[in-house]
Amino acid sequence: MELLKTFSIKPINTHLYEVAFLHESYSNENGLCECYQRLEFLGDAVLDLVVSEFLYNMDSNLTEGQLTQMRSNYVCKNALYTYSMELGLDKYIKLGSNPELIRREIDSVISDVFESFIGALYLDLGLETVKDFVSKTVITHVNNKDVFLHDYKSELKLICDKDYREIIYRLIREEGEPHDKTFTMAVLIKGKNYGIGTGGSKKEAEQNAAKIALTKII
After folding, report:
1. 103-125 vs 37-58: helix axis angle to the nearest 10?
2. How far apart are CA 104 and CA 112, in angstroms?
3. Is 175 within 8 Å of 191 (Cβ atoms)?
4. Cβ atoms of residues 209 and 187 within 8 Å
5. For residue 193, which phi and psi values (nearest 5 degrees)?
6. Are 170 and 188 spatial neighbours (Cβ–Cβ below 8 Å)?
7. SS (H, E, C) 91-159
8. What pTM value is reported for the model?
9. Closest Cα to residue 150, out of 52, 78, 54, 59?
């Protein structure tokens, strides 16, 4: 894998990195018993830890709330997608031939494999290697103060609070397998529907709904 050579990573267990790019659809079609989901689960926790430690040490004046908000910006789906594309991880993904995989789902997979790669790297070479890799990829964006996660909900709330308009987010639809759900949320302002958004989590769907509402309310 060219990526490993680029970062001077000498793998011990190459199989871990192969699994890190196996989508469930590919595994099912080819009778394989593993896919990247377990590595993604582990990589998510490891990435949170490494980024949290960096932010903690970066500025002793940052409060818990500020640290949480900053971390969310650098580990959100948009950020993970950016890291994957910059590294060319999308080139290694193995998908099934299912034509129903829509663009949003593929983008989500591209985001997922950054975490599964982190999980593989952690299991294979340990935390210090992960820290070195993250410092050369994620932390450069932290130092550049790049913004990946726009808080549309807070912006909408700020506007509505000025004249005491109540905001309610309502779940309209929930579909998909337990590990790969899609949520559709509506944002109601004083009982009126101002926007509908979808996402891989309720929070993401709410942010997308709020983004639409802002175009109608400002």
Report:
1. 70
2. 12
3. no
4. yes
5. -75, 120
6. yes
7. HHCECCCCCCCCHHHHHHHHHHHHHHHHHHHHHHHCHHHHHHHHHHHHHHHHHCCCCCCCCHHHHHHHH
8. 0.77
9. 78
- Which tens digit of pLDDT belongs to each residue from 147-194? 898 888 988 998 999 888 999 999 999 988 776 788 999 999 999 999
CA distance 62 to 164: 31
Q: Which of 140, 156, 162, 163 is nearest to 188 (CA)?
A: 156
Task: Give every strand in the sheet of 180-189, ordered side by side.
Answer: 167-177, 180-189, 192-199
Q: Which helix (H) or strand (E) holds 175?
A: strand 167-177
Bridge-partner residues for 184, per DSSP? 173, 198
Catalytic residues: 44, 115
The bridge status of strand 180-189 relative to strand 192-199 is antiparallel
What token pair was written down for 6? Answer: 């680029």
At 211, list the tokens: 């983004």
CA 138 to mean position of chain CA atoms: 13
pLDDT per position as a tens digit, 78-111: 999 999 999 999 999 999 886 566 566 788 899 9
